[in-house]
Description:
- This protein is α+β, with helices and mostly antiparallel strands.
- It has two domains: 4-125, MutM-like, N-terminal (N-terminal domain of MutM-like DNA repair proteins, Alpha-Beta Barrel); 146-275, Helicase, Ruva Protein, domain 3 (Orthogonal Bundle), CATH 1.10.8.
- It has seven helices and ten strands.
- The strands form three sheets. The chain has a four-stranded antiparallel beta sheet with strand order 1-6-7-5. Strands 2-3-4-8 form a four-stranded antiparallel beta sheet, with helices on one face. The protein has a two-stranded antiparallel ribbon with strand order 9-10.
- Helix 3 (146-153) crosses helix 6 (198-218).
- The radius of gyration is 20 Å and the shape is elongated.
- It starts with a helix and ends in a 6-residue tail after the last strand.
Amino acid sequence: MPELPEVETVMRGLEPFLTGAIITKAQKNRPNLRIPFPATIEHDLKGRTITHLRRRAKYILIHLKGGDILVIHLGMSGSVSIIEKGQRYNSQTHDHFVLHLKSGVRVVYNDPRRFGMIFMMAEQDYASHKYFVHLGPEPLGNDFSAPILCARLKGKQASIKQALLDQRVVVGVGNIYACEALYRAGISPMKKAGSIKGEKAELLVQAIRDVLKRAIKAGGSTLKDYKHADGSLGYFQHQFTVYGREKEACQRCDCDINKTGGIKRVVQSGRSTFYCPRKQN
């Protein structure tokens, strides 16, 4: 599943083509993805001007002149491709939604598993909308800090790894980046979330920021279906320190792998967690 760095990378790839663009046609090739397309979406988008784009959690928000927002969520396998004017492109089976722009650019949403979402909402409804009202702070924003994290973790008996995947605690820190951040912070993924305080919280907040910024800079992680808007692939997976490295030597420890067995893998809530038992406690 595309996580925050991947969604941020896609959004940044779309910005130069969509900002200020006029939509001449919106084309839906099926009635629904995870949820139905709005019945009038083709009519509602025709002739609209895109003012700007931004990301919230794992959602791409395309703001339209007149006060509406076109929302895209990539789900498990969604991708958005830019087809420039004159560029040859053969339509794919799972091209479910296409925006045609006055510039001649086409924006193609492809999603084999159809777990993604595309819908519209009024800007005035954004704060109370069911998909956004519960969301926690952005990990790269000013609203995310050690005191705020501690407050959101207070009393939680779940593991810190599980808590970081809770979008009400902090948004967009998926499985991969939670593993990497906990490793950098030296915190066991099994530690109770409510016990993370003080210096540990400071280290964790900084580790989350660092990991996500590095991943965005590298273009995200290419796992299974993920690709950028221009079709290129992300490379942060080549920088993983623990994720997917079960039984390998820990890069930041001098422990004897023959005695420790290297990086461990456990399953938490159905997801693989990778960690170093010696470094993380």
